[in-house]
């Protein structure tokens, strides 16, 4: 499954649609402005909230939390000992860990579990400007969760880049 994401330009408070390959609006990322912490909601086309994404307030390093139906689903943070590439670790509540690595700011990275590819985020093969794709490789993967992971990782990388 391929989803097309238009790069957001202005930051928190912006809303943007994620489309399927046929151009149908599938998910809405709803950025919540005027909050103490960075917050997003991933909604389906009918406006139902599928996933809540927010910044963890009391953490030693930037951490984003993904929740579904008010229950924690995953925690995302940058791996500390990654010298050559951007690496992030997604810790699911069941103890599973997913790795995200690649050129995050260039929108060229992969999401893997135990060495197996789950999704590829890329703008390489797209002719549409300021758009990247989220290609969900496994049929049994949760596309909403993988899109939420991509949103979190890009947000954390951009925030870190602004601080440098």
UniProtKB/TrEMBL annotation:
Pfam families xref list: LOR (PF04525)
Coiled coil: none
InterPro entries to which the protein is assigned, alphabetical: LOR, LOR_sf, Tubby-like_C
Family of the protein in this entry: Belongs to the LOR family.
Name of this chain's protein: LURP-one-related family protein
Species, as recorded: Streptomyces capoamus
């Amino acid at each position: 499954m391929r989803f097309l994401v238009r790069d957001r330009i202005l930051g928190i408070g912006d809303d943007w649609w994620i489309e399927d390959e046929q151009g149908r609006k599938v998910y809405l990322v709803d950025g919540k402005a005027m909050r103490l912490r960075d917050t997003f909601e991933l909604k389906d086309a009918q406006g139902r909230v599928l996933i809540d994404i927010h910044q963890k307030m009391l953490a030693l390093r930037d951490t984003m939390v993904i929740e579904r139906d008010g229950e924690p689903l995953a925690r995302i943070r940058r791996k500390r000992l990654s010298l050559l590439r951007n690496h992030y670790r997604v810790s699911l509540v069941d103890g599973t860990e997913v790795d995200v690595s690649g050129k995050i700011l260039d929108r060229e990275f992969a999401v893997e579990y135990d060495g197996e590819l789950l999704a590829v985020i890329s703008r390489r093969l797209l002719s549409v400007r300021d758009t990247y794709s989220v290609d969900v490789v496994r049929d049994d993967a949760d596309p909403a969760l993988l899109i939420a992971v991509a949103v979190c990782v890009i947000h954390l990388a951009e925030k870190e880049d602004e601080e440098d």
